[in-house]
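[recover] target loaded
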């Protein structure tokens, strides 16, 4: 029974070592979740259908230690703050010498939020894809690719644009078209 409703399965529940065993896919699907199987890692993933799944764009397993990942996020975060505040010195602090993509003062729209959506190891650097939500008079979304070498941003390129009808930064702070 799931939420008071009987759920039928092609495999009957079993008791093994005093534990009830049921097919996880049947239970997850009855709870309206997506179920996935990763053959390489021999793992099952269960995700709430109301949360959009995230695509592995470059389909590459990355080997980051925690501090390496934190450093990468901080580099991108520092750039985003500098870009949004039009702070050339802050952007230069996380960019390679000669980086020339500095924002012009007083430009809009403002960066409402951003999220790293994938990363890819290149020969001597990392490419990092970031989803950016912007707002001025209207909401809009952009996809930015960063190339980071030796903990400095080498390039940043806007590679795609998408429509955003509404966006919730956190509960209580939402924007709409």
């Amino acid at each position: 029974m799931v939420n008071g409703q009987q759920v039928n399965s092609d495999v009957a529940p079993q008791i093994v070592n005093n534990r009830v065993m049921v097919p996880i896919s049947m239970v997850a699907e009855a709870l309206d979740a997506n179920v996935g199987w990763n053959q390489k890692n021999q793992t099952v993933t269960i995700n709430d259908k109301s949360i959009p799944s995230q695509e592995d764009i470059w389909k590459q397993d990355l080997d980051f230690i925690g501090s390496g990942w934190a450093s990468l996020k901080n580099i991108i975060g520092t750039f985003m703050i500098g870009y949004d505040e039009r702070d050339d010195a802050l952007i230069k602090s996380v960019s390679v010498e000669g980086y020339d993509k500095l924002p012009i003062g007083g430009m809009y729209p403002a960066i409402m939020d951003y999220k790293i959506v994938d990363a890819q190891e290149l020969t001597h650097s990392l490419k990092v894809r970031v989803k950016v939500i912007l707002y001025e008079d209207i909401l809009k979304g952009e996809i930015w690719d960063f190339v980071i070498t030796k903990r400095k941003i080498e390039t940043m390129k806007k590679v795609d644009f998408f429509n955003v009808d509404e966006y919730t930064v956190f509960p209580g702070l939402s924007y709409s078209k």
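[recover] notes: The mean pLDDT is 84.
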